[in-house]
Every structure is written in C-alpha cells, then in structure tokens.
Automatic annotation (TrEMBL), chains A, B:
It comes from the Bacteria. The active site is at 29 (proton acceptor). Transmembrane segments: none annotated. Pfam families: CYTH. Residues 1-147 form the CYTH domain. This is CYTH domain-containing protein.
Length: 164, 164
C-alpha cells in the first residue's frame, strides 16, 4: 500500500486529555538504505515493515506481522544500531487519528505527532496543540534518529520549537 | 532459525534422473548488506527472507510468506538490482534433499547444488555428480550474483569446474 503522512512537532501537552493509554514501541532497522526494513515490537505484537520513498511524503509500505520471539531476536542481534524506544499515543481529532510518539532512551525529550492521509493534498484540521510541520525534515525520520539521536542534537525541545 | 548449508559446483547432469519437475524462482534484494533482505517468488508462492551470518556456513534465517502481488511489486519497483532468475530442482540422495539451482538471465550457465544440514559437521554423502565445494566462496552467494552476474566472470562453467 501507499503511506501518505504528515509529521509535526508538538506545541503543548493538551493532547493528553484526548489520548489513549499509550503503547510501548521498540524498533530497529535491518536496512537503513532505500528501502528501509524495520522490525518493531508494539505492545504484544511484532511487525516487519518495508518502506520506500515514492515521492515526497508518499511511501510504499509493506507490513507483515511476525512472531514476537523472532522480532526480539532480530532486535537483540541483527539490527544495525541500538533500538529506538518510544510510547505511542493515539489521539482522535476532527476525523483523523493522530499518533503522538514520546521518545525514550537516546531520543528522550523528542515528541512527534503524525497523521496518515488518503492523499498528499487531503485537508486536515490541525489540532491547537500542534507545532511546526517537519514532514520533509530528515532529522525527524526514525531511520535518521538511529544514527543521530535527539540527545546529540545539542538543543532542547522548547528551543527547537521556536527554531524549526 | 539457524540455516546451515554447504554449496557445491555440479560435475555432471546425472542428477536429472532423480530430480523433480523444478520450480521457477525469481528473487531480488531489498538490502544487500548484513543482514540481507530477500524477496522471492517461488512457483505460486512468495517469501520475504532475512539472513545474517552467525559464523562461517551458519546463518540466522527468518522467512515469512507474503502475498504474491506484493512480492511482484517489490521485485518490479523496490529491489536494488535486476532480479535473479533460476529453476530449482530437488534431488533426494542418501537421506538428504539436494537443491539444484540452474540459473537463467544474466547468470545463465551457472549451476549450484546446495544441501541443508542440522549442524556444521554433519556427515553428508556427496552424490557422484557433485563438483568442488564453494560454500565459502563469496562469488557464489546469490546476493553477490546480483552485483556480479556469471555472464561477467569471463569463464565458462566447464573451465571454472577445473579451476575452483
């Protein structure tokens, strides 16, 4: 399938009033090239996902559920860098489900909101707690964060919010 | 699971008397690094396979059946090089199943026999039609053949048989 998404920084914690309980995610990459190959533990399930850029903001995505034990083996022995850890919260707003990623570990402090769209130009009402858009900023790509985690950016999130 | 296999050249066509009807395989790589990520069409089925070297001749292998249509999309749009094409024949011999790959396309002329083992030092009776072992010769790795297909080796198979 094609994945079309937009990605934003988060301007306030107001999203928490609308969020679900959150699901822990641990993921890593078997290939950081093009395409990327990602293994992800999400709650009690595991997935293998292939993504390749088709055009800006639009990606081929193939996702397969795999046994949790095999994902754990891949995360502990095969991935190219330490895994990314985050909690994902789902927040409904004006007909879309927003995914809020609160990063931990080497990316602690980083927060990203994503929304999936049916087409690149689909109109989406931005929640009032949304910050600047970073859809095309490679620093915020998860594959990039494995190379250059947020801890090494040398800037705190509040300062970054004003600069992006 | 762990994959332990040995790989050989083929000295004669005598294996054909014992072989099945053969299954066409078309495969390509989403990652040629370590681990490799392979997509394969095999007959009417499709698989995504991750392999990583654990020690010489021993590899981690994770294989997942995927929808044929998705494999076809990956093979036509996402793989890093032109696909490898071959016919695979299964040949029972002395308690093992040998897999004979007869390559086509850019690797036409190349023939490889493989046998999977339970352990690296498992005794295996070599069929009389088997040639020299090439288990640790990277030229015969399928991932390598996508970079350097047999057509460009500048040697025919009969000559190579004497040299390896």
């Amino acid at each position: 399938m094609l994945e079309i998404e937009r990605k934003f920084m988060i301007a306030s914690d107001a999203w928490k009033d609308l969020a679900d309980a959150g699901t822990p995610i641990r993921q890593g990459y078997l290939s950081l090239g093009e395409p990327t190959v990602r293994v992800r533990l999400k709650g009690t399930k595991a997935y293998l996902t292939i993504k390749a850029t088709k055009s800006p903001g639009v990606r081929h995505e193939f996702e397969y559920q795999i046994p949790v034990g095999e994902a754990e083996t891949m995360l502990s022995t095969l991935i190219l860098r330490p895994p990314i850890e985050k909690i994902r919260y789902c927040v409904p707003f004006a007909g879309h489900i927003w995914e809020i990623d609160i990063f931990e570990g080497a990316n602690k402090g980083l927060q990203i909101a994503e929304v999936e769209l049916q087409s690149r130009d689909e109109r989406v009402d931005l929640p009032y707690w949304i910050g600047p858009e970073v859809s095309d900023d490679p620093r915020f790509f998860n594959a990039y964060l494995t190379h250059r985690p947020f801890a090494g950016w040398g800037v705190d999130y509040a300062t970054l919010l004003k600069r992006v």
